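Summary for the steering committee. One of the milestones for this cycle was to obtain a three-dimensional model of the protein with zinc ion bound, which we needed before selecting residues for the alanine scan. The sequence and ligand used are listed below.
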Amino acid sequence: MFFLAFAVMLSGCAQKDNIPDDKIKAVTTIGMITDIVENVGKDKVSVQGLMGSGVDPHLYKATEGDVTRLSEADIIFYNGLHLEARMGEVLEKLGEMKKTVAVTDYIGKEALLDFPAYPGQYDPHVWFDVSMWISAVEKVRDSLIDIDPDNGEEYGNNAEHYISQLEGLGSYVRSKAGEVPEQQRVLVTAHDAFQYFGKAYGFEVLGLQGISTESEAGTKDVQDLVNFIVERKIKAIFVETSIPERNIKAVQEAAQSKGWDVKIGGYLYSDAMGDEGTFEGTYIGMVTHNIDTISGALR
Ligand SMILES: [Zn+2]
């Protein structure tokens, strides 16, 4: 049913007339990519992000409305590295007829971390290393210049401005991370989204669920994590906005029953940003919120 609808829509959208403005129409998956395209495209590009605040990209399936938006787009930006696991088939089909861009394309394989559950695949959560996300900005810039060379200079200038903001962000994260004593630099979260963060800024990272949220944490995972928290006297663990908090709460209760009062250090934005129109609803805001929350709770 879904693919029938999909095929009908694709065949019906060969000519993109009736659209009054001359903006490039971009469709994006996660909010962090939407933010890049808005910052680089500014008023030359209209952007529609499919996944809002609190949405888990690992589990997200394209709705019929999404398929319409995707099929009408001039260009589609997605993360790649199997982050949008359940949209893979749709993106692949669209890639045969229009420009689809994985923003992680410029990141060299040697910089990527393994995805232990799936040999040969890589951890997709690259946005938590700000320098890696800068390369995503460069990929978006070059792709927009490619399909709209007339406005190339503007895309180049916009990207340069945004990248300089991100460089400032990277320095901020590094200095806040440095405020946490080395033995306290352990980040325990609901799922394994923060390995790149840990590698870039010197934290040991443990997630209750694996890198994808598709597999539920087993009893043994919970026990191992609880033992680790108690033995290492971890001060705080964190919930994530795109994942139900009950699992992390269960870890907290289990640690408390073993006599170690671990706190919930706050909520982190992992795979989705905050609400639109708020500071946390931007990439810079989400990363700032996270490092402030982490360093505040572990210091
Ligand atoms: Zn994730």
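Key point for the committee: The longest helix spans residues 152-178.
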